[in-house]
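BACKBONE STRUCTURE TOKENS:
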Amino acid sequence: MIYRSLPLLFTVALLAACTVGPDYQGAPDAAPKTLAAGRLPHADTGLPRTPAVAQWWQTLGDPQLNQLVAQALQNSPDMATALARLKQSRASLSGANADALPKITGDAAMVKLRSPDTSALGGSSGGGRGPLSLYLAGFDASWEADVFGGTRRAIEAAQAQNDASQAQLADAQVQLAAEVVQTYADLRDQQARLALVDASVDIEEQALDLTQQRRSRGVASQLQLEQVLTQAENTRAQRLPLQASIVEAVDQLNLLCGLEPGELDASLTTPRALPAIPSQVPFADPAAILKARPDIRVAERQLASSNAQIGEKTADWFPKLSLMGDLSFSAADPGHLARKDSGTWLLLPRLTWNALDFGRVAASVKGAQAGRDEALAHYKSVVLSALRDADVALARYGNQRQNVVLLRNVESSAVRAADLTRQRYRAGTASTLDWLDAERTRYQAQESRISGDAALLKDFASLHKALGLGWTL
């Protein structure tokens, strides 16, 4: 019997080498000019460059920030969502691989039967028989030969989708790390500006006291007193929005770290200086960006999955060959089930072909092709957006570095001017309003410098995010 089945098995193996549908040729060249140039057009080439670092936030030298990022990557609900999706795709891949293997089921049963007594009804068979016992055991097996590669294409699509889910997990890490750093920068910025407001309020209250004394002596006018009072009240009014923004930033960090509101209050309430930014930035090679950005990897793997689905749908046009077998044993005594004469076997090759489907397969193939075209367009869009993000991030970071230098110079000049005006005021050669104007200018310059430092830190985080850095799997 085995030798008679050899031609059939050989034919199945030969046909199984045929896989319909287009073979995936890899990701298309979505940005040939940028890749040929080897650089982004608006990147500041004067910035000192350094090799990329995966955990880039550690280069800022802030242990509390490092702890927050680690806590977020460990406990964030967004990370849990991405990890759950990866587990789902792995389960789908395991199911697709299992579809290529035979399906085997086993069953066992025991039947008791007693025939009815028909003698009382005038029957000729006499009294009933039984109870009779019958024991059954057997195995059923079925296997659909992947003659035209439909199952292989389904596995290929599931594998690509699994890779895409893994890249989505990496992309979630990139996004989360950058958001934690940017929110932390907002927090320290607002805390520093609140401290600056409090210092300005102290100075203006001193000026108010002096003006009230001068008013009582008739040296200052009521108008001057009202002007000083107005400025002091305006400065005090800036405290409440800053305090609300601080609460919002802390709660946002709680959310990013997977914590309830208030859990980080004790550790983040004390103001700290903004982390010092390294003088060097990562390389911005376009080819490296295409390899590093997880969202590009997601789009590319989705394109590969869509391409494989075309072959999966195309296989429905062709006949399907399945092999079914049954091996069963039956006996009146369970000890006799293993006897040779108790066994029954069945082998059934089956060929099916949905020859007349009224265009259903053609429609599904066209739908898969359209899905592939959509995935191709999406991939190109993601690549161009990624290169745009990196180009803008590098240009913005370079410009902000220069802006911070100017803001520091302005701050130094304003501080010197305020000190000189204070000395003139004490010497009686400058008025109270002159002193307050100088202090207001100093305050504005210091506030602008603090905001500039925070913006530079956020641009530093945006740069690493745009370069696709910050993920480990």
In short: The longest strand covers residues 132-145. The two ends are 52 Å apart (CA to CA). The mean pLDDT is 86.
